[in-house]
Amino acid sequence: MDLGTILGLLCGVACIIISIFIGDGQLKSFWDLPSVFITIGGGICSALINFRIKDLINTLKVTKKIFTDKQSSATETIAMLVKLSEKTRREGLLSIEPELEQMEDPFIRQSLQLVVDGIESETIKDFMDTEIENMQARHSKGQAVFNMLAAIFPAWGMIGTLIGLINLLLKLDDPAQIGPSMSVALVTTFYGSVLSNFVCAPIAGKLKMKSDEEVHQKEMIAEAVISIQAGENPKMLEQKLKIFLPPEEREKEIRDTQEAADSSVSA
Question: What is the mean pLDDT of residues 69-76?
Fold first, then answer.
């Protein structure tokens, strides 16, 4: 579970509500069904015009990723790949075939299966590059939908405000209606700004960040697969893969390795 996303949403809602009450406002003053209809409904209609329906449906499925953090640990993946490298050095490439069926990551499983089948390294590299590119293309569609909504919601909020102002001008002969009508007119702008800057733009950013992390890890895996096929020294492979780790994780790995070495010496 991604606590950052959940905390951000809860705290953001709290900030808005607290600000309303601090200003001696009332929550019911910020609720207007026609404003909701024009802002959200109009934004969705614009998305339907701009994207295919199946892309919008897939985007809804992808959105749940902002609340989860299921990506496997890079250090665990490195340890597993180094272990496979050691086994292939001792027993040959065919020795890892029984282990492939137990691998949860289809990218690793399919890539190593090509290695076991004796496919040339250039073909395997092209396969992995194509997989990564297609994954990026799929992810970019979800990001594009939310980026588009972030840009269009304020515009629909302004359209709602203009509609409210037109209706307001029709009531100028009744001063008692001017204040409430102006309030309703501005609520649509409020909805558009909140949906854009608090919901859609941050979701697009989170999806991009998670996509970049997944691409980075798959590039690390691709490097390992080619090295395993070439029979590279497992120790050298481990050092190469650790370059893909963030600095803090790399330093932790170095400390853990040093502590393990010291423990074995003292024993």
Answer: 73
How much is the pTM?
A: 0.82
Predicted confidence at residue 263, as pLDDT, reads 57
Cα distance between residue 247 and residue 245, in whole Å: 6
Distance of CA 18 to the CA centre of its chain: 29
Q: What is the 3-state secondary structure (H, E, C) of 99-116?
A: HHCCCCCHHHHHHHHHHH
Using alpha carbons, list the distances in angstroms from residue 40 to 29, 36, 64, 125, 147: 18, 6, 20, 45, 15
211: nearest Cα among 128, 152, 142: 142
State pLDDT tens for residues 166-176: 888 887 777 77
- HSE-CB at 136 with a 13 A cutoff on CA atoms is 13
- Burial-class residue 1 by CB neighbours within 10 Å (0-12, 13-18, 19+): exposed
